[in-house]
Design brief:
Layout lengths: L1 E4 L2 E4 L14 E5 L7 E7 L2 E10 L2 E5 L12
Parallel strand pairs: 1-3
Antiparallel strand pairs: 1-2, 3-6, 4-5, 5-6
C-alpha cells in the first residue's frame, strides 16, 4: 500500500508485487482526494508505463497485471 499525504507518496518499505504477479496483487493508494482522475507513472530502466487508478475500498488502486510487472528491476 502507498499512502498519499501532503501531496507525497509514501510506503512502509514492504514488497508490493513481484514480477509476473498477474491479477494477484492490488496496489492501493490511501488518502488520495476524491474528485480527481489518478494515474501512476512508473519506470523500470528504459521502460515507462502509465497505470490508471480507479476508486476502490480504502482509496484508489489497481489490480496489477503481468503486462505492468513484466520487466525486472526497480520501479
Amino acid at each position: 500500500m502507498l499512502v498519499f499525504e501532503n501531496w507525497e507518496l509514501k510506503t512502509d518499505g514492504q514488497i508490493l508485487a513481484r514480477q509476473y504477479d498477474h491479477l494477484s496483487r492490488t496496489l492501493t493508494v490511501s488518502g488520495a482526494p476524491e474528485g480527481w482522475d489518478w494515474q501512476l507513472l512508473v519506470r523500470a530502466g528504459e521502460n515507462f508505463d502509465v497505470i490508471d487508478l480507479s476508486p476502490i475500498e480504502g482509496g484508489v488502486g489497481v489490480v496489477l497485471t503481468e503486462d505492468q510487472l513484466s520487466v525486472s528491476g526497480y520501479y
